[in-house]
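Before relying on records like the one below, remember that each one covers exactly one chain. Contacts with other chains, cofactors or solvent are not represented anywhere in the record.
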Amino acid sequence: MQIPRTKLDETDSRLLAALQRNAYLTSQELSELLNLSASQVGRRRQRLEAEGYICGYSARLDPHRVGLTVQAFVQVQMVDHDPDTAKSFAGLVDRQPEITSAWTLTGEADYLLRVYCEDLPALNTLIHDTLLPHKAVARVQSQIVMNQFKSDAPLPT
């Protein structure tokens, strides 16, 4: 399904880049950055929200400060690709707060899961008590992050 998209002009791109760096910027602060009036900035922001360019606003937390000391990427290979099984697995993933993002992939692994856990025993529990028992999971392989030297960056605009 193709989502209709309006063309972004240079000002829209600069507005999106500024909001990705700091979503707290007021219309007045943005107007100064973009050389527009605050009302023009407000209208552009509302249009970009309505058209789905801006999906929401959130706070990024420091995982270590909130007690999540283990970050891992978990690859999951399925036994089969039955639509009902895939839906069941997606539901399982969605219910696990430790799994912060998930992707379907091409190649050997069918899914890639980004996971944050308190410690290694919690990761072990997630893998052995939650993921592996699912009827369609054939194999799970995890890679533990030693160091994240580049934080999740804003999207290029």
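The two ends are 22 Å apart (CA to CA).
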